[in-house]
Amino acid sequence: MDLSIIIPSFNERDNIVPIVERIHTALRDEPIRYEIWFVDDSTDDTVDVLSEMEAVDKQVHVYHRDSERGLASAVVAGFARARGEYLIVMDADLQHPPELLPEIYRNLAAGSDIVIPSRFVSGGSDGGLGPLRKLVSWVARVIGQLALRRLRKISDCTSGYFGVNRNVVDGAQLDPIGWKILIEVLVKGRYKTVHEIPYEFLARDAGESKMSMREQWNYFRHLFRLVSQSPADRRFFLFCAIGASGVVVNLVVLSILKYALRVPDTSASIIASLVAMLSNYIWNDQITWRASGQRKWNIKLPLFIGISLVGIALTTLVMDGFRAVGVAVPIGQVIGILVSTVWSYMMNNRLTWKDTQEKVREEVVVTREEGRIRSV
Ligand code: GDD
Ligand code: MN
């Protein structure tokens, strides 16, 4: 079997016949042996439509789940049943044009590990969504890309339409929450190359979207879980959390010095900052970078302090810059803190706790084909 097309479906009775027809039409002239797997959680009579289809069409298979729901877990169940060398996931509602299947397949067969039809490379469009959904979807993507390194180069990491070589997901411990199976695959899959092709996300013909507030919430739970499972992504969050704890340490020490020990204000402030810095150093050494770095403390500590001091200067510089163009000081300061946090994280990662036996850095190559809008 060359190709398995996996389609999660939930109450899509009027879309089943049209999508199967359009898939067959799209692949009619291609020398591809393929099967179609519906993973269906419907509570209406979609399953009857599917069963009839399965009875007359040998290429169609149906797996109906009674006790489970969820788009992403449905796709994982489909991966387990599919026999194709390549796997393509698409929605049942024809918002993902089946006419793109041959092109996705060609790219997979030519060696791309993952192929993503994207709404956001030139020539693509997300016209099928309303303005509010577009905004929510944009914010969700940006947060995902900030949190997870492997999503950063991908323009449409929340796409529900994508293809993979089965080696990408075979053996990966896929355990998604909610909808976004692609982020799970991108974070946990084994792959080297991703290729994006433009497409136009169309409006729905029949039935309605099952997207909900609950799914938005699930998305954040899913991101949180992926970050906590991925050592490299987790580090930055530990670093930020420890930085925040340093503020508390700083204020507690300051209060003790000033009110209990009657130390003069300026000295109290400086000592409090030094204690906080030392506390941050110890936590980062013991937790954030526990597994990495072979330098001795008498090299790491001065590096850490130097980087922190430059960070403070950087915060002030950024704040000053923003103040010069009329931005309020506290806002400029917050931006400065963000910049210096990212900067000091990167410097500490590269210098202070640098791995001397540097592992080969995994590099994923992302290519994209840009073109005119394709309407199909
Ligand atoms: N098996 C199963 N179980 N399928 C489900 C479930 C479920 O609990 N919930 C939804 N589906 C199916 C729908 O029947 C449809 O085929 C597909 O998943 C997508 O659901 P829609 O309700 O049509 O979602 P959408 O159009 O709002 O969002 C889609 O497009 C976005 C943009 O590409 C989804 O594909 C998103 O994942 C995607 O980000
Ligand atoms: Mn849809």
UniProtKB/TrEMBL annotation:
Domain Glycosyltransferase 2-like: 4-169
Residue ranges of every copy of the GtrA/DPMS transmembrane domain listed in the record: 239-353
Family: Belongs to the glycosyltransferase 2 family.
Pfam families per record: Glycos_transf_2, GtrA_DPMS_TM
Record-level GO BP terms: dolichol-linked oligosaccharide biosynthetic process; GPI anchor biosynthetic process; polysaccharide biosynthetic process; protein O-linked glycosylation via mannose
Keyword Iron: no
Membrane topology qualifier: Multi-pass membrane protein
Main location, first listed in the record: membrane
UniProt cross-references to PANTHER family, sorted A to Z: DOLICHOL-PHOSPHATE MANNOSYLTRANSFERASE SUBUNIT 1 (PTHR43398)
Cell compartment(s), UniProt: Membrane
Record keywords, A-Z: Glycosyltransferase, Membrane, Transferase, Transmembrane, Transmembrane helix
Organism taxonomic ancestry: Bacteria, Bacillati, Bacillota, Bacilli, Bacillales
Recorded coiled-coil stretches: none
GO cellular component, one term: membrane
GO MF term (any one): dolichyl-phosphate beta-D-mannosyltransferase activity
Protein origin, superkingdom: Bacteria
CDD domains associated with the record: DPM1_like
Protein name from the UniProt record: Glycosyltransferase family 2 protein
Species for this entry: Alicyclobacillus acidoterrestris (strain ATCC 49025 / DSM 3922 / CIP 106132 / NCIMB 13137 / GD3B)
